[in-house]
Amino acid sequence: MSEEIFAGLQKLTLLDFPGCVACTLFTKGCNMRCPFCHNALLVTQAQSQKMYKNEEILAFLKKRVGILDGIAITGGEPTLMPGLYDFIAQARSLGYRIKLDTNGTRPDVLKHLVNDGLLDYVAMDIKNCREKYGKTVGLGDDYDLAPIEESIGFLMSDRVDFEFRTTVSQTFHTEEDIVEIGKWLAGQEKFYLQQFKDSGHLIGEGIKAYDEDQMKSLLDKILPFVPNAQLRGL
């Protein structure tokens, strides 16, 4: 097997996969252009990223059996990678739990992985309220939300453990937007408002973060709709 799916490997994380000692694998490329993207180099400079052969990653995973519990796969957007299913199946055969981060634009891939029992946890980014989605992901006001809605509906059917999360910035999210997101996801058990942090390599410029007190105020706005919502990244 000589496929190359991954452009990054973090050998140990206690944060990226809730409840697991894990490693994190990064894919390159994305079908969105979020100005506040934390891993923007995987999007804007995708062709210059070092790639790992799948057998390199699998060799690493074999050596870590019994030390690591899980694998967090993030990006970029992992569901764009043609060899993702086969890789996860092989990693799964080693006994690893698998977490997938996704923007929800490929519900067919998401359903295939979940229905075949290959995922233990899914984290889906909710970029903004419906009305501002296209602008927030850098693709214009006429952005087609149908795939996003389909992925949300599928996850809400409780076929797999999951969370929704929104990275919040003053530049793109108002209190009213947060309320609308809350209405959209009403009743969900796991929803996180994440504080925007400048990674130093962003697609956009001049993006401003909310401070800790402002984030707490935003959380208060969403709690009537999502009572178990929490803050992350403070």
Low-pLDDT segments, ≥5 res: none
Instruction: Kindly report the average pLDDT value.
Output: 92
What proportion of the residues is helical, as a percent range?
25-40%
Structural class: alpha/beta
Spatial separation of the terminal alpha carbons: 41 Å
* Main beta sheet strand tally, sense and closure: 9 strands, mixed
Total DSSP helices: 8
Gyration radius, rounded: 17 Å
% residues in beta strands:
15-25%
- Helix and strand pattern: EEHEHEHEHEHHEHEHE
Shape: globular
> How many distinct beta strands?
9
Order of the strands making up the biggest sheet: 3-1-2-4-5-6-7-8-9
Note down, in words, how this protein is organized:
- With 234 residues, this protein is an alpha/beta fold.
- 29% of the residues lie in helices and 21% in strands.
- It has eight helices and nine strands.
- It has helices at 41-44, 54-63, 84-93, 107-115, 133-136, 146-156, 175-184, 212-222; strands at residues 4-13, 22-27, 52-53, 70-74, 97-102, 121-125, 161-168, 191-195, 230-232.
- It has a nine-stranded mixed β-sheet.
- Helix 3 links the parallel strand 4 (70-74) and strand 5.
- Helix 7 crosses helix 8 (212-222).
- The longest helix is centred in the middle third of the chain and has 11 residues, at 146-156.
- The radius of gyration is 17 Å and the shape is globular.
- The mean pLDDT is 92.
